[in-house]
Amino acid sequence: VLDGIPSALPALMRAEKLGKRAARVGFEWPDVDGALAKLDEEVAELKAEVANGDVKRLRDEVGDVLFSVVNVARHLKIDPEAALRDANAKFERRFRRMEELLNADGKRIEDLPIDEVLEVYWTQVKGEE
Question: I need a labelling partner for 20 at 20 to 30 A (CA). Which of 3, 58, 114, 122 fits?
Fold first, then answer.
């Protein structure tokens, strides 16, 4: 079923194709709720592994979370690559604006506690959008 999907594809694209192929033969959640529940399960497993600090296990669990996110996107008919590209652009835009605000206040991000940066500046930038 999975033969012919090039291993050299970008990981997000390959995950989407693997999921589509598996779905063709019935290996599929019946709706997005099943895919979301699986994502919740994978996030819980990741959280459990964080305390252990085993890098291999953490990498496995992060991979499972990412694969599950791709399946959720597929159920919603959203291109995960495009969604991530948009999220990257949004983050970059917001971060640059936050830097502008910090600069206007004569501050540098590296000199402030993260709580202040998030609560004051990041929240302000999000509110501007």
Answer: 58
